[in-house]
Amino acid sequence: MSDKNDLGNTLGSHATYSWIGLRRGNTHRWIWSDGRGPAHYTRWKVGEPNSGGVSEPCGEMQVGGTWNDAPCGYENYFACYETRADGTETFVFYSGGRTWLESQERCRTKHTDLAYISKQGRWVGADCNKKSAFVCQGDLKVKKTVIRMTVRSDVDLTDSTISDALMEKLKVSLAQQGITDVNLSWRRDSSGLAFQRHKVP
User: Fold this and answer.
1) CB of 58 within 8 A of CB of 22?
2) What is the pLDDT of residue 171?
3) Mean pLDDT across the stretch 34-50?
4) 137 has a pLDDT exceeding 60
5) Boundaries of every domain in the chain
6) pLDDT tens-digit profile of 13-24?
7) pLDDT digits (tens, 9 = 90+) for 96-128
8) Diameter over CA atoms, the chain
C-alpha cells in the first residue's frame, strides 16, 4: 500500500487496470462514486468509452493516466482517497485484485472512497464580440419512481432500526445490479409511518 499526495505518483507503474471511482449511472453519464456528481473532467483513452460489445459500466486508469471502461466484475488493483482532519486529501493504492464493488467497499471502510480525478479550470478575459467555441452542460433530469411493496414479516417494520436496515439491503441489492445513482427513501403517511400493518386473512 502506498500513501502519496498525487494519484499518478501513487499508482506509478501500477496504473494499468486500476479501479478509480468512476461509474456509468442510469442516466448514462459517468459519475463519481463518492456522490460528487458527474465527471466534468475526463481523460478517456482514444476510442473509449466504447463498452467493448459487453456491459462496461466501471472506470479504470491505465498507463499514462488515461481511462478505460471495463466490466465491474474484473479483479483489478485499485486506488482510494482519504480526506484528512486538516481537509487535505491523499491517495492510497492497493495491489490486491478486487472487483469494482469490492474495491469501493474497501475504500469506504478504510478510507473515504475510490479515487476521483478533477482538474480545476480557470477564467480568462475574452472579447465578448468574438466568436468562440463553447460547451454547455444541460440540467440533470431526475426521474422519480414510487414502488409499493407488501412485506410479510414477523418483525415490527414501524421500528426505524428495522426499516433503516431494510433500506440498506435494498441499496446493496441495487448496487450489485449496477444501479448506484439513486436516492432511496420511504414514503410516509400523515402520521409519519412508512409501513401499515395488515392482518393476513
Assistant:
1) yes
2) 80
3) 87
4) no
5) 2-114, 143-201
6) 555 688 999 998
7) 889 999 999 999 999 999 998 876 444 445 566
8) 76
Name residue 152's amino acid. Answer: R
**Amino acid identity, position 78:** F
Residue 90: which residues within 8 A CB-CB, separation 6 or more? 3, 4, 5, 81, 82, 84
Q: C-alpha angle with apex 101: 97 to 107, nearest 5 degrees? A: 75
Of 21-25, 39-43, 79-83, 182-186, minimum mean pLDDT range: 182-186
pLDDT at 142: 60
- C-alpha cell read off for 97: 485484485
Q: Which fold has domain 2-114?
A: Mannose-Binding Protein A; Chain A (3.10.100)
List the one residue out of 63, 10, 31 whose CA is nearest residue 180: 31
Q: What angle do CA 84, 88, 93 make, to 5 degrees?
A: 70
- The amino acid that residue 125 corresponds to is G
Report the 3 state secondary structure along 80-139.
EEEECCCCCEEEEEEEEEECHHHHHHHHHHHCCEECCCCCCCCCCCCCCCCCCCCCCCCC
108 φ/ψ angles, rounded to the nearest 5 degrees: -70, -30
Q: What is the Cα–Cα distance from 83 to 80, expressed in whole angstroms?
A: 10
